[in-house]
Each structure stands twice: as C-alpha cells, then as structure tokens.
Amino acid sequence: MTKTVQPRPSISKAWLDAMRPRTLPLALSCIALGSFLAAAAGAFRWSIMLLCLLTAVFLQILSNLANDYGDSIHGADHVQREGPQRAVQSGQISAQTMKRAMILFAGLSGVSGLLLLWLAFGAEGLIGLLIFVLLGGAAIWAAVNYTAGSKPYGYAGWGDFFVLIFFGWVGVLGPYFLMAQRLDWLLLLPATSCGLLAVAVLNVNNIRDIDSDKQAGKFSIPVRLGPERARIYHWGLLGTAVFLTTFYVLLTFSSYGAFLYLLAVPLLVRNGTAVQQTHDPLVLNPLLKQMVLSALAFNLLLGLGLIL
C-alpha cells in the first residue's frame, strides 16, 4: 500500500504538534477530580489547584516532547507509522533542540512544583514537602523515561502501570492531600478509576501503533496481547473504571447528584464499541481524541456530582 506523504508543517506548528495539546485535558482532569474531592471535604484552595494545573501541564508537555524524541531515536517513529507526523522523525526539529526543550520543561515543572509545595506546606511541613519533592522528581523521571533514556520503560510494557500511578493515584490524591493535609483511603477508588481511563487513552494509542511498535521492539501491552485481546483489555479498563466509581459513590452516598457521572457512561460505551470494531489504524486516530474527551467528561461529572 502506498503511504501518502504528509506535508512538512511550519516550525511553530511542529512545536505545537510535538507538545500535543489534545492530551492536556487528560492531565487536567485528574487534578480537577482531586480538587472536587477536596471541595467535597470542605478543603478546597484555588491557589493550590491552579499551581497543580500548571505543574501538570508542564509535566504533560515534557512527557509528550520526550515521547517524540524517544520514539524517534529508538525507531518507533519510522515512515510506516500511521499516527500523526513526529517532529524529530520528520526532521522539523533536531534531536538536540528537542533535548533542550525537554530540559526547559523539566525545569519549569520543578520550579512550579516547588512553589506549589511551599504554598501547601510552608517551612513547617518539612516531611510532607520532602515526600512531595520525591514524588515530583519521580514524575519528571517518568515523563522523560517512558520512551527516552537508555532503558525506556514504555518499551518493556510498563507504560500502563506508570500512567495509572501518575494520572490516577498521584494526579488525584496529590491535589487532595495538598489541600486537605490528610488522606481518606476510600479515595483510592475514584483515583484508580481516573487512572484506568487514562490507561484506556494510552491503550487506544498503542492499538493504533501496534505494527510499528512491534517492528521497533516496543513491547506495549497491545503488542504483548495481540490486537483482539487488546480490545478486550480496553473494555476491561472502561468497565473497571465505572465499577470502582459506582462502588465509591455507594459507599459514600450523600445525594443522588453523585450519580451524575453516569451521563458519561454512554460516551465510554461508544468509544469501546468503536475501538472494538475499528481495525484501520488511521480510523483509530479520532478515537484517541474521543477517549480523552470521554475521560474528561466522566471525571468532571463525577467531581461536580460529589459537591452538589
């Protein structure tokens, strides 16, 4: 099959595409859910939420730039790849320039994160500050080493696990703890649900890239499972996310408004059905965006329902 050659974008568009702004709602939704949970507990703080959002944006952009860089140097972004054109692989941005941009956003993430921790804990909360400094360092490491670095964990199939940690447990429980200065372990239920929906986004991406990833030696979960079982896995992610959320709402029931998230369930079913029935990698591209927006809607409706 002859592949259509994509036109070379302008340098500004190449940078915008490399930053992948369509993925940002995923990073923002976990912060929003954690903030809604804090509001439901009477502990919401605008300043903490805004700095959490800023830090999450910097980390997500860092991760996206590192993904562009890492997949290009490791060979996953070759000419047969079916996804959007990558900046380093296409030659629009040099590998060295991309590395400098990664350093910039790692620095911005660090500065924003330190300001956030100082605001949350002050000089007195040294232990909490140190714990979150370590978490922040781990988040920067994870953002870079998914596909970059000498031993990228995404190539060994660990991407799903790290997405669950940072887009679920850390992304939701972190803002909650920074505001409330305490944890309720029942919150692991909605946090895990949020993380699983983020894993579903990664899963759609990896199903789309299954052939090119296999050629490059990138053993993502879909490569390991195969295309059909990867689609069953996708349904498992969506179904478990809904189940955990429902379990949490029933355990902490305060009003029927808490079931507002059910309005987003048809969006998840629609995405799962489309992924199940779609085998053309190019047709999977819009389903990736659809999954991001479905996860965002689910998390926002859940959070809003909990404070009604």
From TrEMBL:
<keyword id="KW-0474">Menaquinone biosynthesis</keyword>
<dbReference type="GO" id="GO:0046428">
    <property type="term" value="F:1,4-dihydroxy-2-naphthoate polyprenyltransferase activity"/>
</dbReference>
<dbReference type="GO" id="GO:0009234">
    <property type="term" value="P:menaquinone biosynthetic process"/>
</dbReference>
<keyword id="KW-1133">Transmembrane helix</keyword>
<feature type="transmembrane region" description="Helical">
    <location>
        <begin position="127"/>
        <end position="146"/>
    </location>
</feature>
<feature type="transmembrane region" description="Helical">
    <location>
        <begin position="185"/>
        <end position="204"/>
    </location>
</feature>
<feature type="transmembrane region" description="Helical">
    <location>
        <begin position="101"/>
        <end position="121"/>
    </location>
</feature>
<dbReference type="InterPro" id="IPR000537">
    <property type="entry name" value="UbiA_prenyltransferase"/>
</dbReference>
<protein>
    <submittedName>
        <fullName>1,4-dihydroxy-2-naphthoate polyprenyltransferase</fullName>
        <ecNumber>2.5.1.74</ecNumber>
    </submittedName>
</protein>
<dbReference type="InterPro" id="IPR004657">
    <property type="entry name" value="MenA"/>
</dbReference>
<dbReference type="Pfam" id="PF01040">
    <property type="entry name" value="UbiA"/>
</dbReference>
<feature type="transmembrane region" description="Helical">
    <location>
        <begin position="232"/>
        <end position="250"/>
    </location>
</feature>
<keyword id="KW-0812">Transmembrane</keyword>
<dbReference type="GO" id="GO:0042371">
    <property type="term" value="P:vitamin K biosynthetic process"/>
</dbReference>
<feature type="transmembrane region" description="Helical">
    <location>
        <begin position="158"/>
        <end position="179"/>
    </location>
</feature>
<keyword id="KW-0808">Transferase</keyword>
<keyword id="KW-0472">Membrane</keyword>
<feature type="transmembrane region" description="Helical">
    <location>
        <begin position="48"/>
        <end position="66"/>
    </location>
</feature>
<keyword id="KW-1003">Cell membrane</keyword>
<dbReference type="InterPro" id="IPR044878">
    <property type="entry name" value="UbiA_sf"/>
</dbReference>
<feature type="transmembrane region" description="Helical">
    <location>
        <begin position="287"/>
        <end position="307"/>
    </location>
</feature>
<dbReference type="GO" id="GO:0005886">
    <property type="term" value="C:plasma membrane"/>
</dbReference>
<comment type="pathway">
    <text>Quinol/quinone metabolism; menaquinone biosynthesis.</text>
</comment>
<dbReference type="InterPro" id="IPR026046">
    <property type="entry name" value="UBIAD1"/>
</dbReference>
